[in-house]
Amino acid sequence: MDTTMIFKALSNEARRQILEWLKHPEQHFGPQIYLPKDADFKGGICVGSIQAKTELTQSVVSSYLSMMQKAGLLESRRYGQWTYYRRNEQLLREFTEYMRNEL
C-alpha cells in the first residue's frame, strides 16, 4: 500500500466525490447497459457514466480514474470498448486500519 499515492489521490475534491459515489453506485448511476449480464464485476461503472455525473471533460475524468487506480483505490475491467471502475474495498479497509493505527 502506497499511502503517499493514496493521500495524493484523495487530495482532490472531485476524486473523493467519485470514490464516494462508487460506494453506492446503484444510488448515483443509471443501469450499466453495456456491462455483460454474466460479468463478475459487481458495482462497476463505465467511464462515460462517471464523466457525465462529474460534468468534467472525459480526459480529466480518465486522468483522475487512472490516478486512483494507480493508488490502488479503484479496480478496473474492460468489456468490449467500455472500461468499468469500482472501489477496491480491500485496500480501503487496509488504509482505514492504517489511519486508525498509525496516524
UniProtKB/TrEMBL annotation:
SMART domains: HTH_ARSR. Residues 1-103 form the HTH arsR-type domain. The keyword Transcription regulation applies. InterPro entries: ArsR-like_HTH, HTH_ArsR_DNA-bd_dom, HTH_MetalResp_TranReg, WH-like_DNA-bd_sf, WH_DNA-bd_sf. The keyword Metal-binding does not apply. CDD domains: HTH_ARSR. Keywords: DNA-binding, Transcription, Transcription regulation. Pfam families: HTH_5. GO terms for molecular function: DNA binding; DNA-binding transcription factor activity. SUPFAM superfamilies: Winged helix' DNA-binding domain. This is ArsR family transcriptional regulator. It comes from Paenibacillus tyrfis.
